[in-house]
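Q: Could you fold this chain for me?
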Amino acid sequence: MNIKETISSLPNAPGIYKYYGADNSIIYIGKAKNLKKRVSSYFTKKQFDSAKTKVLVSKIRRIEFTVVNNEMEALLLENNLIKEYQPRYNMMLKDDKSFPLIRITNERFPRVFPMRNPKQDGSQFFGPYTSVKAMHTVVDLIKSLYPLRNCQLNLTEENIAQGKFKVCLEYQIGNCKGPCVGFQSEDDYMNSIKRVKEIFRGDLSEVRAELLENMNSAAGDLKFEEAEQFRLKLELLEKFRSKTTVVSQHIKNVDVFSISMDLDRAFVSYLKVDNGIIIRTKSIEYKMKLEESKEEILANAIIHLRELYESDAKEIIVPFDPEIEIENSKLFIPKAGDKKKLLDLALKNALYYRKQKLDSYAKLDPIGRVNRLMLQMKSDLNLTEEPRHIECFDNSNIQGTNPVSACVVFKDGKPSKKDYRHFNIKTVEGPNDFASMQEVITRRYSRAINEEQELPQLIVIDGGKGQLSSVVTSLKKLGIYEKVAVVGIAKRLEEIYYPEDPMPLYIDKTSETLKVIQHMRDEAHRFGITHHRNRRSKSTFVTELTNISGIGSKTGDLLLKHFRSVKKIMEAELNELISLVGEDKANKVYNYFNQK
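A: Sure. Below is the predicted structure, expressed as structure tokens.
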């Protein structure tokens, strides 16, 4: 893929980008809040800031990127990659200066404070933070919510019981509750530490619930000043949640793998995580020769990438069991928590890499891309033939008025707008989706049969089993039920229903098939709603005209067809109206609006 194509495929998401030179070595690594905008800027600027930037751009031969969750993760990954690869054109972040952390000491009545370069002494560390300001925002919040000691006294039970200590200024000004003299119990103090850890991990729900309960309790006891203090703390917590992101360090030395499958290709993404920081990423593509399973491919990728990067991680995070055993390592399939978030991030990168590759192949071979899509849809939907021609139906009857139905047509996976049709429901009274769908299907395909038109390979109904049954009834009456495949889409797009089958089919959310179906459903809904609004609007205007005594719907339609709107009819001269509908009716219309 050339540079222009790579840039067009970049997502509007945070991440890092790597520029490769002619010898396939990394010459520059950068981070971005928006990858597409940042990388594009290098190739669209008319004038660069320096001659070095011009030289850098002239040497770029290939671009790779990795998506992360936020700017902070981008900065941390950029930092580690620059240290590892030492790219020629990177001037920053080459020192070994570490990012600040927050430490919770391993002692009775633990202390909480910021530091760098942690030592493994049993303490817990949270971070790293990409800015000192962000770190102090967290520390200040903790001090406001939960006053903790900052002294270095040895607060053993014996020392406190013997009265060795006295309260200090921190207690006097409200920054400490005096555990050194027994004013605060160890249980109460450790509950505060528990809440502090939850805040560091980004889980604010329990902290918020506790503060809210305390506020309501104080207000119920008429302790309004105390309740106000809890309210202010809640306000601080909400501000913190909206501005601050914290990365946990408890995930140490793990490999993360995820995979996205296509018809004859698989795309695997690998993340190397150490102390909560992504330090390495790689995405690779496999061209399947036979019908290799996803388990086989993932197993192969794990072995290949771990050998390539000489990984000795004891834990390997995967989306499913690849059915292999790796010496001195264990496989883990997370269902929730931080490890699940890492797995989701790996999948996101696999999907972006897949899209980038498939877009490149599509530009080189557009016919091949369509053929692949048709084969994919045939496989995903269990069809007997490729769905080259698909028709999708949707009903619209807002508030039970002016019921209409829309039919959109897709050919080779793309909209064929010249073939779109809308239907005004004629034989059904009131809002009855089932009967309306039967009428529309009968009208659509009886005409197709009479005119010997080509039938679609697939009919898609925007509705569940009820509407699907109505369609089947109509198709059977027309004698084409066995000739055309038909499916119904429930409210959740991944649920596909088949006739006479109570169990739905769940399509992979990452599949191109689901994207086509979603596009089709959206088009049918849009097309139907637009027609419904136009019809309802026209009906409203005609009703306004037919309120005039002696003016019927035919005269109303004639006036609207000529003047285009009721407003222009109101502004029309009497002579103009007379020339159109005659003197008697013209006088009635003219007098009605001018008197009104």
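A (continued): The chain has 20 helices and 19 strands.
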